[in-house]
């Protein structure tokens, strides 16, 4: 039993030394390759070292150690980019599908104009409008989704309505509803 603990302790010591020696280089490597998507950098670096921990027995020592980590980092960066690319393609496809569905419009309806105006608003305005006005969430439910207080949702919704009204060049009623045909 003592032998197992010794092996684990040696592995932990080796991993700690590997991490301490190469963290900055791996972070810089990932940072340079994911620079437009900086939010993904810490997760990708963590993934590199998680793989290094799982495959520590395969890791070379000495000068080859950093090169091996660069190889692991390269594969993690490729996966992160591929995941991001898939997410963007899905969003584009969903957006195209949503725009291609006809709205239940009454004669004289400005639904398409309202959609275009909403797309010109800041992202947080778009989201709060969609959550409350389209998805029918209450302020407290929207607050849970957005991770903020109910008062913050009310303020954001008020501001979003004002900006939407300005984008439409005339005031928008307190609640408008756009429903899609099934």
Polypeptide structure, described:
This protein has 182 residues and is mainly α. It folds into two domains: 2-98, Rna Polymerase Sigma Factor, Chain: A (Orthogonal Bundle), CATH 1.10.1740.10; 103-167, Winged helix-like DNA-binding domain superfamily/Winged helix DNA-binding domain (Arc Repressor Mutant, subunit A, Orthogonal Bundle), CATH 1.10.10.10. Helices cover 71% and strands 0% of the residues. The protein is built from seven helices and no strands. The protein has helices at residues 2-33, 41-54, 64-100, 111-119, 123-134, 139-146, 150-167. The longest helix has 37 residues, at 64-100. The chain is elongated. Mean pLDDT is 81; it is low at 174-182.
Largest sheet: none
List the helices and strands in order.
HHHHHHH
Q: Classify the secondary structure makeup into a structural class.
A: mainly alpha
Unreliable spans: 174-182
Shape, principal axes of CA atoms: elongated
**In the residues, how many domains can be counted?**
2
Please report which band the strand proportion falls in: under 5%, 5-15%, 15-25%, 25-35%, 35-45% or over 45%: under 5%
The CATH topology of the largest domain comes to Rna Polymerase Sigma Factor, Chain: A
The separation of the N and C termini measures 65 Å
- Tell me how many strands there are: 0
* Helix residue percentage: over 70%
Number of helices: 7
Question: Oligomeric form of this entry?
Answer: single chain
CATH architecture of the largest domain: Orthogonal Bundle
CATH superfamily of the largest domain: RNA polymerase sigma factor, region 2, helix turn helix motif
Please tell me how large the radius of gyration is.
25 Å
CATH class of the largest domain, anyone? Mainly Alpha
């Amino acid at each position: 039993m003592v032998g197992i603990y010794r092996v684990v302790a040696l592995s932990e010591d080796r991993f700690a030394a590997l991490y301490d020696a190469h963290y900055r280089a791996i972070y810089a490597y990932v940072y340079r390759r994911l620079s437009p998507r900086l939010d993904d950098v810490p997760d990708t670096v963590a993934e590199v070292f998680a793989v290094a921990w799982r495959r520590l027995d395969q890791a070379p020592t000495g000068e080859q150690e950093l090169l091996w980590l660069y190889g692991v980092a390269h594969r993690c960066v490729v996966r992160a980019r591929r995941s991001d690319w898939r997410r963007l393609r899905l969003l584009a496809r969903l957006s195209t599908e949503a725009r291609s569905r006809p709205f239940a419009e009454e004669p004289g309806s400005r639904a398409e104009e309202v959609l275009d105006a909403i797309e010109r608003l800041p992202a947080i305005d778009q989201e709060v409008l969609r959550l409350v006005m389209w998805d029918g969430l209450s302020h407290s439910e929207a607050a849970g989704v957005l991770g903020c207080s109910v008062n913050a949702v009310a303020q954001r919704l008020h501001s979003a309505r004002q900006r939407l009204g300005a984008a439409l060049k005339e005031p928008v009623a307190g609640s408008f509803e756009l429903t899609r045909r099934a």
